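Quick check before the chapter quiz. The format below is the same one you will see on the exam, so make sure you can read both the input and the output lines.
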Amino acid sequence: MFAVFRTGGKQFRAEPGTTLLIPTLDAEPGTTVTFDDVLLASEGDEVSVGEPLVEGAKVTAEVVAHDRTAKITVFKRKRRKGYRRKQGHRQGFTVVRVADIIV
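Here is the expected output.
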């Protein structure tokens, strides 16, 4: 059993018990979140493809933690002009553990 759902402008493949890193959610660790934008759901040999969403399908998950990725360096420069800008960035994400898929 698996499902493909959409959150934060990205798509994720979820199976019960898997851990996913998704864009930051406004939820406290330990709470349960529900994703209603299910694009594809599979239960055994039966596959349901949404047009654009699968009716009545939900993915429930538990928020495990919030964290940030490794730091990247953004460096801009223009030759012969003395223009240089150095900036760092760390993207935030939420760790969720998929609990159940309802088709």
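If your answer matched, good. The two ends are 10 Å apart (CA to CA).
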